[in-house]
Amino acid sequence: MNSIIIIISLLETISPAIGNFGYSKRQHLWSKDFKLCEGKLQSPVSISSFKSFPLPLPALEVIGYHDYLPGPLHLKNNGHSVVVNINNNARNMYLPYIFGASLEVNQEYELDHLHFHWGAKNNRGSEHVFNGIRYPMEMHIVHRNKAYSNFSNALNYENGLVVLGIFFQLQLEDNKLLHPILNNLRDVRWLHKEIKLQTPVTLASLLPRNTDVFYTYKGSLTTPPCNEVVTWIIFPTPVLISFNQLNMFRRLSDGEDVLADNYRKLQNIGFRKVYVRRLNSSLATTYNATVFNVTNLDWFLH
To answer: How far apart are alpha carbons 83 and 74 in whole angstroms?
Structure first.
């Protein structure tokens, strides 16, 4: 019996979005159970295009994003979000991965899962704020460094994870590219409900049209245990979603109430730098290189 208790305790300290935490008025209590949540490199943050440092960074290379994800995919309401998980058997198969951008040279990051954050009202929901705008929803595509055997192991290393942050902007018409996931939300309305997705999904269909420009900084998981092991890559161009589609998320339950406003409050950026990838002749001349070397990239102000 004691061994079972120990295992459960370990899971609560290493797994994302696990444990007794809430969003509405209880965020300040996270650090009581998860000490890392009061660190100096916490996420999300407010991003300003005017305060970011422009660099001719390499493109973010996405491999396998146009292929169907290996199934079966599982859609789950975990009480904190809706998560699309990869079947464990598929982890031995070919999974999409990313490299380039501001990431360390020769480091590749493999897809782990994706999830969403949204608001009860249209003027809130995203975790990051961009130029003073808080979008109604934000999706996180979470990737694990291939150098580490699993997600839990990656949480122990500062280069363990890369998360792509994608904003959503409202429009009248449905975004049909979101149907494979959103059409199944009614089947996971209740807490801990999990189903297999019947329609194939590609990650490319979930990305914004313009991925050439992105913002990047060093931060953390935005849910307990808040490990500061994340390189964030945020796209300023939003993906479109209809009012009806967003309302599908707002019909979900967290076991006590409606599941919504599941975004963390903004964290202090401190002395961290936010870089923005921009390609123009003046920057290329300044850095005197067609491919920018990220090896000695300085992530902090001095």
So the answer is: 8
CA dist 266 and 145 (Å) reads 26
Catalytic entry in 28, 66, 74, 80: 80
14: CB partners within 8 A, 6+ apart: 152, 155, 225
The SS3 call for residue 209 is coil
Residue 28 annotated to the active site: no
Each residue's pLDDT tens digit, 157-186: 999 999 999 999 999 999 999 999 999 999
- pLDDT value for 277: 96
DSSP letter assigned to residue 36? G
Name which of 222, 265, 238, 266 is nearest 46 in CA terms. Answer: 266
Q: Give me the DSSP letters along 221-257.
A: -SSTT--S-EEEEEEEEEEEEEHHHHHHHTT-B-SSS
Task: Look at residue 290 in the predicted model and tell me its pLDDT.
Answer: 56
Distance separating alpha carbons of residues 34 and 14, to the nearest angstrom: 10
C-alpha 241: how far from chain center: 18
- 189-194: Cβ within 8 A, 24+ apart: 189/77, 189/251, 189/252, 189/253, 190/77, 190/253, 190/255, 191/77, 191/78, 191/79, 191/253, 191/254, 191/255, 192/76, 192/77, 192/78, 192/79, 192/255, 193/76, 193/77, 194/74, 194/75, 194/76, 194/77
227/244 Cα distance (integer angstroms): 35
